[in-house]
Write a structure and sequence with these properties.
There is one protein chain. The chain contains 16 helices and nine strands. The protein is of the alpha/beta class.
Length: 333
């Protein structure tokens, strides 16, 4: 069983007198920094000189310095810039300025697990990975609710890495909901697998394939959109609240029978074989090497794929239909 820790297991005293440096101020960075600040911690934000986020962080009452200066000041440094940038920024701006006995932290284990970042053995290495996007994490914190987090102690140089990690998790609000103990390896590989096979890659590919099948079958694209994408939120919300059983209890018997008899025909053994292949590429580093090379080469494949996806038929009709439903607060990218 996974160990779970709560407020009673964490003590903010382990952060007392320490400077926490937040490297990055995007979705995760702003939530971590502001939650810690609201919990009485001394937070400094490290950004590159031309960053547009500097003014945003300063307007929120945070002190902002260049990344090397933040690393010099840090007793605890949290790296929350994009995965593909972390290795270079660490080697050029952070590594020369880290102090023995300090702590280096990440909110996702990619760079540590795939050795884009290798930390000296005199420094604690931990991960606190909240299980929510940063803006949702911040929103719930202001309402007095924390989001669960994963905690990993990768390197315990001081003998106090776990206590500091739990204190950090409490500072961002996670011990109120629960902090699950894990490893950098398990978090990284499972996170990438989830993103690729269901949360992002799998669900968008499945929705688009279903939409395209209905349109090819002669059905209006508006009807296909509602059936294959719009109603998905209702089903996911039901599963979120009570699992598959509650979802099946809530839909019609017709829908449940179709689920149980046709679902396994769609997601069949061939799909599972593809999932196993994707997992192997994550485990052996193939995906990580591919992603790092893609960025080093200027994103020659990623950029056209993104452009194509942004202008697909389902996206175009979706914009039109969401505009008819202003109560949804539709977003346009």
């Amino acid at each position: 069983m996974v160990e779970v820790y709560y407020d009673k297991d964490a003590d903010l005293a382990h952060l007392e007198g320490k400077t926490i440096a937040m490297i990055g101020y995007g979705s995760q960075g702003h939530a971590h920094a502001l939650n810690l600040k609201d919990n009485g911690q001394n937070v400094v934000v490290g950004l590159y000189p031309e960053s547009k986020s500097r003014a945003v962080a300063e307007a929120a009452g945070l002190r902002v310095v260049d990344v090397p200066e933040a690393a010099k000041e840090a007793d605890v440094l949290m790296m929350v810039i994009p995965d593909h940038l972390q290795g270079r920024v660490y080697r050029e701006q952070i590594e020369p300025n880290l102090r023995p006995g300090s702590a280096f932290m990440v909110a996702h284990g990619f760079s540590i697990h795939y050795k884009e970042i290798v930390i000296p053995d005199t420094i604690d290495v931990m991960m606190v990975a909240p299980k929510a996007p940063g803006h949702r994490m911040r929103e719930l914190f202001t309402e007095g609710i924390g989001v669960p987090s994963l905690l990993a102690v990768h390197q315990d140089a001081t003998g106090h890495a776990k206590e500091i990690g739990l204190a950090y998790a409490k500072g961002v609000g996670s011990t109120g909901s629960g902090v699950l103990m894990t490893t950098i390896k398990d978090e990284t590989e499972s996170d990438l697998f989830g993103e690729q096979t269901i949360l992002c890659g799998g669900v968008t590919a499945l929705v688009k394939a279903a939409f395209d099948t209905l349109v090819e079958g002669g059905y209006p694209q508006e009807i296909a959109f509602f059936e294959c994408l719009h109603e998905l939120k209702m089903i996911v919300d039901l599963m979120y609240q009570g699992g598959f059983n509650y979802m099946r209890y809530s839909v019609s018997d017709t829908a449940e029978y179709g689920d149980l008899t046709r679902g396994p025909r769609i997601i069949d053994e061939h799909v599972r074989e593809n999932m196993r292949a994707v997992l192997k590429e994550i485990q052996d580093g193939t995906f990580a090497r591919e992603w790092i090379a893609e960025n080093d080469e200027g994103r020659p494949r990623f950029t056209p794929l993104r452009e194509q996806a942004q202008h697909s038929q389902i996206e175009e009709i979706g914009k039109e239909l969401r505009a008819m439903m202003p109560w949804m607060d539709p977003k346009v990218i």
